Sequence to fold (210 residues):
Amino acid sequence: MSVSGVDTDPINSTFSGYKELSIQPLNIMEGDDIDQRRFDDLMEIIFKQPDEGHVVIDNGAATFLPLCSYLKDNDALDLLCNEGHVILLHTVITGGQAVVDTATGLKTLATSFPTAPLIVWLNRYFGDIAMNGKVFEEFKVYQDNYAKFRAVIEIPHRNKSTFGRDFEELLAQRSTLESAINSNLPVMTRQRLKIFWSDVQKEINKAQLV
Fold:
């Protein structure tokens, strides 16, 4: 099984910063503006993948709406499905101040692509996922669209001063969990990352994504 990635974020190209992975940055800018026609190149990349290949596309906040518009206007998801591709739309609901914005993003995906399965990742690192005293399962966007959710995955939330700091440093270094676990980092750092990765894998296994 081959896995490749495409980074479409022109501002925070975090994904393509992971040199251990096969990530291709996609330039979608024409001067200071996004040129939606350049998303044609994204479709070409997908269609050139081997039959058993997987493509992970990272889309940042700056390009979220333009990419949604492109996919919708061009019936791109229908084209991919008709050619035998399986599509999963992943989105993160973040606690704290970003909860409203991320919930709005989920609503956009659910309404723009009503037949595409959604994977929702709940990230409580920055605070509780709550609005007006309601938990995620009580949000209107959840109530209206839960039948479209392929899975709701809880990102493990552990002590910020130990697990949290380790993970922040991992992200800053653009290192994968597998690489860090097998590195010469301090033994307890590696132990905590191993525990975190095991927890994530359990969540993914429950969701039956792979």
